[in-house]
């Protein structure tokens, strides 16, 4: 669960930093991997919650 929280925080900071850049200077590859990292982090968090409930 801690890994998911850390991954979500790091990837969301990278995503926000890229979004605040001008459109010309944005890197789409970094945006994609940051979004994928946030989804994976959320998956780790919810998976840990489900395992604790079971």
Question: What kind of sheet is the major sheet?
Answer: none
From the spread of the alpha carbons, the general shape counts as elongated
Radius of gyration: 13 Å
How many helical stretches? 2
What helical percentage do the residues reach? over 70%
Mean pLDDT: 94
Structural class: mainly alpha
Please report the total strand number as a whole number.
0
**Unreliable runs:** none
Describe the structure in brief.
It is built from 2 helices and no strands. By secondary structure, it is an all-alpha fold.
Explain what you see.
The model has no long low-confidence stretch (mean pLDDT 94). The protein is 83% helix and 0% strand. The chain is built from 2 helices and no strands. The protein has helices spanning 2-20, 28-53.
């Amino acid at each position: 669960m801690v890994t998911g929280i850390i991954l979500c925080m790091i990837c969301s900071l990278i995503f926000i930093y890229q979004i605040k850049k001008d459109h010309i200077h944005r890197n789409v590859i970094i945006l994609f991997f940051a979004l994928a990292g946030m989804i994976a982090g959320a998956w780790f968090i919810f998976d840990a919650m489900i395992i604790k409930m079971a």
